[in-house]
Design a protein that fits this description.
The protein is mainly β and about 280 residues long. It has one helix and 16 strands. The protein is globular.
């Protein structure tokens, strides 16, 4: 069964994949546990385990009750992500492959998505950089334009996203603004994720590649590549006249200023993500 794609966020990168593993001690996230009613049945109270090779190259993220994601590198860049879904606790079904392409400045320019494992491309997201802090994007599904917009960012994180998606033949506008703390993102130390800033902004997080979780509210640690989101504000309407939904998040930090717990602190729910590091 295909599910709605919400992908989705990441961190400061350690540059050398050949470094001694001691260099990454305490910085590499090894496990995440999702707790609370904001997660659907595929994630609530589930634990995701992260596996590495060559120090800080991410090999896979796996939850034996839910899904598996495998990561492929070309040099220091993540260029392919394969996603499978577990059925009945054991049977694996292919969900999708994502191909990530970069320009000669190692900026992400294309996300191509194969949903049927036959080499065909059903979705393409293209980023066109206006300058060092802004990019335009287009999203095509089966050769039809399904959305377009702009993304504003700094060296560390995405600051704002303006979407124009289609509904009944007309574009629907939505603006999302993000604010961050000054601490490290949980993915700090994973090679290549600093380059996925716009990937995370568009989709939320690699943890949600195949499941329908509302990424607009950015439940941490979805957004960012260097810091952790502390609030998001959404406005919508043709003139962005509908004032926003605000989501607030707090953190508990451990060694090296890395969060050990993320809390959603509004909306009347008890929603948390617990992080463990090597």
């Amino acid at each position: 069964m295909k599910k709605t794609l919400y992908l989705f966020a990441f961190l400061t990168v350690i540059l050398s994949s050949c470094a001694n593993e001691d260099e990454f001690q305490g910085n590499l996230i090894s496990k995440m546990k999702f707790i609370g009613s904001d997660f659907n049945d595929s994630y609530e109270n589930h634990e995701f385990n992260l596996e590495y090779t060559d120090g800080n190259k991410l090999v896979r993220i796996i939850d034996f009750e839910s899904d598996k994601k495998e990561f492929h590198y070309t040099g220091d860049l993540i260029t392919k992500i394969d996603v499978w879904i577990f059925w009945n606790g054991s049977d694996l079904e292919f969900e999708r492959s994502l191909y990530l392409e970069y320009d000669n400045e190692e900026r992400l320019i294309n996300i191509k998505i194969d949903e049927v494992d036959d080499g065909s491309i059903e979705q393409i997201i293209t980023f066109d950089y206006v300058d060092d802090n802004n990019a335009n994007y287009t999203h095509h599904y089966r050769n039809n334009l399904s959305g377009y917009g702009t993304i504003s960012f700094n060296e560390d994180d995405v600051l704002k996203r303006l979407d124009n998606n289609w509904s009944l033949g007309q574009p629907v506008r939505k603006e999302i603004t993000y604010n961050y703390d000054d601490k490290k993102h949980p993915y700090t130390g994973i090679l290549g994720f600093k380059k996925l800033k716009l990937f995370n902004a568009f989709y939320g997080s690699i943890y949600y590649l195949s499941h329908n979780i509302n990424d607009d509210y950015g439940f941490a640690p979805n957004w960012g590549t260097t810091n952790n989101v502390v609030s998001t504000t959404i406005r919508s309407g043709n003139n962005l006249e509908n004032s926003g939904t605000i989501s607030l998040f707090s953190y508990e930090y451990g060694n090296n200023n890395l969060p050990t717990k993320s809390n959603k602190i509004n909306g009347g729910t008890n929603t948390q993500i617990l992080c463990t590091y090597n």
